[in-house]
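One such given next:

>
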Amino acid sequence: MEVELLIGNETGTKAYLPAVEEGIEWLTERRGVPGKLTFKLLKDDTLDFSEGSAVRLKVDGDNIFYGFVFRQKRDKDQVITVTAYDQLRYLKNKDTKVYENKTAAQFIRMAAEDYSLNTGMIEETSFVIESRVEENTSLFEMIENALDLELTNTGELYVLYDDFGRLTLRHLSGMYVGEPGAYLMIDEATGENFEYISSIDDSTYNRIKLAYDNEDTGFREVYIAQDGANINRWGILQYFDTLSKGENGQAKADALLKLYDKKTRNLKLTNVMGDNRVRAGSMIVICMDLGDVKLNNFMLVESCKHVYKEGEHWMNLTMRGGEFVD
């Protein structure tokens, strides 16, 4: 395994190839968190970097991480623990935004331009947000709100991430690791341990109730979608929300029921054989016997930590979704 970690000086005129101690960790999460790279190095007379210095990681020629130093921690032995974040770190900035008749993708492009962020592939979304005010809110939260409106109104899920220095938005269908006939698959032999949880206690709803106060008519409009069979099984688990102008109430209720009328399934995998293509938002085939159920389908990566250490590469994954059979 060939690992190349470069770190720039403060002015960006030089780049160093430092000796890294105890390995490198790269962490990504699907929502609201920038990609994070942590590593330890020994201070020497030539190494010259500071907060804001650029960091680049390649493994076996693959582009893994491009970001900037945000934190240093030193000990008495002059070992420096460095924390770098990718471009998504700047989405933690707070602002107030008012916009009309924009899709989530258009809003992301607007925010990127306002904050001079580099963009890559921004796939088009379809739901047009008629009007929205975001007051004293982080750009992360603004973008998540726009993407949530896309999800709840159309059922389509998009993943926002930084692709080696380029802000990227991809539809879930573009996040499969591999290709037909050669998708990445994880089974019992690939990982060291797992923890599996199924639940109806969080984010499971079999009755959706949406309300819209129509100022033109003076009446409250109510839209309901429900699953009688699952109400009989679990009792009424109701989701309630109000609608904004321009939303199709019944279509949104139906889309929400399709999204939430199911058990939540979470799977944590420890010390899985590493694959540079995997990040939060990826779709991976999981084929495992979990005891009372067997899993053989794609699951969504919610969190992914890569560890590159002493010529070895491992991953810790948190997965969501998937179809289970008894």
Residues 44 and 234 are 63 Å apart (CA to CA).
